[in-house]
């Protein structure tokens, strides 16, 4: 099916299901006639039969749509169904399997002492050990104009909602950790200046690159791994029991952002893109160099000191960020190096 309906707020987009599960979820959330038992039973079957939940298009799209209902990021999804019991049950079935798969496949380092200094040093060491092939280095020197547009499209599902998944943690923290997260998020949301909100800077970059900045406009293009990266953030953020994981995720994200953003900006300038395209990445070169220190010690470190029981999930969240984003980056780099597209629809065509 194609998901499309008049928008209640914002602009509605049309995109296609990727199998029976995502079709049933879309039908239910857009006012179709899907039976509540259909999508729940289909979720059970999808989990039982998938070879790899992280790369399963049907499951990852279904999860993306279920999370989009919570964010309100796709206006065609009926807001009255956000807490529909059957849809929540379906989401839990998929989340439980997704989380289990990540915990079984993501390598987590040995736990440090539960002190701010030890946790911060451990997280920086984990980020520094992430020495796989660099998509951003390839981009700076070799990317084509079409690949530059693909990079923006690949990043759009998260970056047009930048910071939102991590903000779910704010009411779940207290004291030093809460203050640190609010300090980081305040910068992400422009420090009170709407035009400096990072999601808006990215929308500006997409427009200047000749792309559609409507949220969800490129869902059909995004491979399962790209959706899985965002879905992992949403799962960590929306589940209170995983607050340690979303904090660890943010710490690793900030620690590995500044240098790649400089390389992306270098590549965009090499290709002659409008300065508005590079501005988003320029903004993050300095901002994330500051954020990584706050995230490592004041946020993750102080949370571990105050709640040592969360330390395993802090390290898991950080390792999961680096691992899943590494898988997605390697997939894109492999496609580009072979002269192919990294996007689903262009590969299919």
* Helix fraction bin: 55-70%
Indicate the CATH topology of the largest domain.
Heme Oxygenase, Chain A
Question: Largest beta sheet: what is the strand line-up?
Answer: 1-2
Please count the beta strands (DSSP E, at least 2 residues each).
2
Mean pLDDT equals: 93
User: How many structural domains does the protein architecture include?
Assistant: 2
Backbone CA Rg: 19 Å
Which CATH first-tier class of the largest domain would you pick? Mainly Alpha
User: Would you identify the CATH architecture of the largest domain?
Assistant: Up-down Bundle
Roughly what fraction of the amino acids lie in strands?
under 5%
The CA-CA distance between the termini, in Å, is 19 Å
The CATH homologous superfamily of the largest domain: Heme oxygenase-like
Q: Structural class of the secondary structure composition?
A: mainly alpha
Please state the overall shape, judged from the principal axes of the Cα atoms: globular
Largest sheet features: 2 strands, antiparallel
Encode the helix/strand succession as letters.
Answer: EEHHHHHHHHHHHHHHHH
Counted by DSSP, the helix tally is 16
Q: Flag low-confidence runs.
A: 3-9
What does it look like?
This protein is mainly alpha-helical and 349 residues long. The protein has 2 domains: 17-105; 116-348, Up-down Bundle (Heme Oxygenase, Chain A), CATH 1.20.910. Helix content is 66%, strand content 1%. The protein is built from 16 helices and 2 strands. It has helices at residues 20-29, 36-49, 57-71, 85-105, 116-128, 135-142, 145-159, 164-167, 175-188, 198-208, 224-238, 243-255, 258-270, 275-306, 311-337, 344-348; strands spanning 2-3, 15-16. It has a two-stranded antiparallel sheet. α9 packs antiparallel against α14. The longest helix has 32 residues, at 275-306. The two termini are 19 Å apart.
């Amino acid at each position: 099916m194609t998901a499309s309906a008049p928008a209640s707020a914002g602009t509605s987009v049309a995109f296609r299901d990727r199998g029976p599960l995502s079709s049933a979820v879309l039908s239910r959330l857009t006012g179709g006639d899907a039976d509540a038992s259909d999508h729940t039973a289909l979720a059970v079957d999808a989990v039982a039969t998938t070879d790899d939940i992280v790369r399963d298009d049907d499951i990852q799209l279904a999860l993306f749509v279920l999370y989009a209902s919570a964010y309100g990021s796709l206006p065609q999804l009926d807001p009255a169904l956000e807490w529909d019991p059957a849809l929540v049950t379906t989401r839990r079935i998929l989340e439980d399997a997704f989380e289990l798969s990540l915990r079984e496949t993501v390598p987590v380092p040995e736990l440090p002492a539960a002190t701010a200094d030890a946790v911060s040093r451990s997280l920086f060491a984990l980020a520094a050990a992430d020495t796989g092939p660099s998509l951003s280095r390839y981009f700076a020197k070799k990317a084509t104009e079409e690949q530059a547009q693909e990079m923006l499209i690949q990043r759009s599902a998260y970056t047009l909602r930048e910071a939102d998944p991590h903000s779910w943690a704010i009411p779940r923290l207290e004291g030093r950790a809460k203050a640190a997260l609010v300090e980081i998020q305040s910068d992400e949301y422009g420090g009170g200046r709407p035009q400096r909100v990072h999601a808006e800077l990215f929308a500006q970059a997409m427009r200047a690159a000749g792309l559609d900045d409507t949220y969800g406009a490129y869902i059909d293009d995004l491979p399962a791994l790209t959706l899985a990266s965002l879905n992992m953030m949403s799962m960590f953020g929306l589940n209170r029991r995983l607050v340690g994981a979303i904090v660890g995720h943010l710490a690793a994200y900030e620690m590995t952002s500044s240098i790649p953003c400089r390389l992306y900006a270098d590549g965009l300038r090499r290709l002659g893109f409008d300065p508005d395209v590079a501005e988003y990445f320029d903004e993050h070169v300095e901002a994330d160099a500051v954020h990584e220190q706050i995230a490592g010690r004041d946020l993750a470190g102080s949370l571990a000191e105050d709640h040592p029981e969360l330390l395993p999930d802090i390290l898991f969240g950080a390792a999961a960020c680096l691992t899943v984003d590494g898988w997605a980056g390697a997939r894109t780099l492999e496609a580009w190096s072979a002269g192919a597209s990294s996007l689903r629809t262009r590969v299919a065509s």
